[in-house]
Amino acid sequence: CSRAQAAFMEGAYNRVLSARQTVPHSTYVYYMDLLEKTVR
What local confidence, expressed as pLDDT, does residue 38 receive? Predict the structure, then answer.
């Protein structure tokens, strides 16, 4: 379970949004963008 996933499940959406800044590889940015749209 990733930190972003755990934060999403806990409702800590500010942590989900900040996780986008620390993605391990540039290919994750696309998925983090989708997750950001879902959270907002």
Answer: 84
What is the residue extent of each domain of the chain? Answer: 3-39
Confirm if 2 and 14 have CB atoms less than 8 A apart.
no
0.70 surpassed by pTM: no
How far is 14 from 27, CA to CA, in rounded Å?
A: 21
Exposure class string for 8-34: b at 16+ Cβ within 10 A, else e: beeeeeeebbebeeeeeeeebeeebee
Rg (CA), the chain: 9
